[in-house]
Amino acid sequence: MSSELVPVASLSTAFRYFLACPSEVVEEGGSLWRSVFPLSRNPQKTGDAEPAGMALTYGDYFEAVRQFLENREFRVVTSAILEAMQQPVTARDISAIDIFLVKHGQFYHPSRVEVLAMGQVFTFVVNVALSFSGKSCIEREFYLLNRLGLTPSDAYLPKAYGYGEVILPKGQEVKLFLGEWFDDFHEFHISEVPKDQQYKIRVWHANPASRFLTPGETLELYRQIAMILTGCYDPESFEQVFPWHHAAGDFIVRCSNGSLQIKLITVRQYGALLENPDKDEITLLEAMLFFLVNLSIRTRLDRLDGVGEVVWAGMPAVDGTVRGFMDGLSAKVPRWDLRFKKFLAAVSLLELREICEAVADSYHPLAPELPVVRDHLAAHAAEVFASLKAFSV
């Protein structure tokens, strides 16, 4: 779909604007509409601030989403409904669109968009990039989601339907894409349980109230995360989804009837972390182990409640990650499954410690999570080694 915006004739579609909930109405032209829009979820961050007199407002945000959806007689919307639901819809069929500002993310400010057409409601997400960091990656992410959508990982990733760019009256550029909305999925983070001062995974439900996962649910959450990322890993080219962050809310979860379902909602980069022209079997197996160790460390890192200090997850993250990696490897490339398990049998604790050190050395020296990683590295190597031995043959 072309990203060029073309003015459209006035249509009868009614637009309404909200914050996260239907009760939080944003009146067009009202005080909030005219208020300055934060470019980061961290109000202390100044790197993406606009010059004086150029600050974006909530009205600018909602107008950009509206223009994107209206472009070429709602083509991005009608084509998405056709692709997602196999239902042909025209611009004249769209009677109303409600736009809900979901959150202020690290890279995007996503909106949930509810389209009323032909008596039905179709729900999508519009990822909106306003900051320099967001605009630098959003078009690439749109391409990567479409690329990975052709792989077995498709079931765990959102569909990306259309990309566009809007130029606001003050001259600011806004980049957006329309994607699949995962209903009843929620962000989750490590949080402190007030009554016993322990860290557990808390799922951020808007309604009903947030709740903590049980140990069994926590292990299953990490298992699915590792399985998804392993499914995206190419063991022969070393390509993988990286970087990703729990603190940024890159994964979401749905809890239903005692079971969990995980989705990966963003792919900002996809490439090889290792470069080696000699791709013999041993090299490929060693790269798989490096991928697994890097995964096992990264998946234990989060920020308390998503925005606080860097925290380290407990043992369910280790066992869940190892199980999920094995499940993902077996499903994606069965021919490597037995070979890798035999390879593990020969790996010593000392060798695993060295790989853990190599992973830690790959972090930027000023990365805020690095001190936490180094504090736990020796114990982590022993925990991963013990978990791996259950799978070696």
Can you walk me through this structure?
- The chain contains 9 helices and 15 strands.
- With 393 residues, the protein is of the alpha+beta class.
- It folds into 2 domains: 14-180, Phosphorylase Kinase, domain 1 (2-Layer Sandwich), CATH 3.30.200; 188-389, no CATH class.
- Strands 1-2-3-4-6-5 form a 6-stranded mixed β-sheet, with helices on both faces. The protein has a 3-stranded antiparallel β-sheet with strand order 7-8-9, with no helix packed on it.
- β5 (160-167) and β6 form a beta hairpin.
- α5 packs antiparallel against α6 and α5 (281-298) crosses α8.
- The longest helix is centred in the N-terminal third of the chain and has 28 residues, at 58-85.
- The chain is globular, with a radius of gyration of 22 Å.
- It starts with 13 loop residues before the first strand and ends with a helix.
- Mean pLDDT is 90; it is low at 1-10 and 43-47.
Helix content: 25-40%
Structural class: alpha+beta
Spell out the helices and strands N to C: EHEEEHHEEEEEHEEEEHEEHHHH
Radius of gyration based on Cα positions: 22 Å
Detail the poorly predicted runs. Answer: 1-10, 43-47
Q: Strand portion, in percent?
A: 15-25%
Largest sheet entry: 6 strands, mixed
Shape: globular
**Chain-averaged pLDDT:** 90
The number of helical runs is 9
Through-space gap between termini = 50 Å
Total number of distinct structural domains: 2
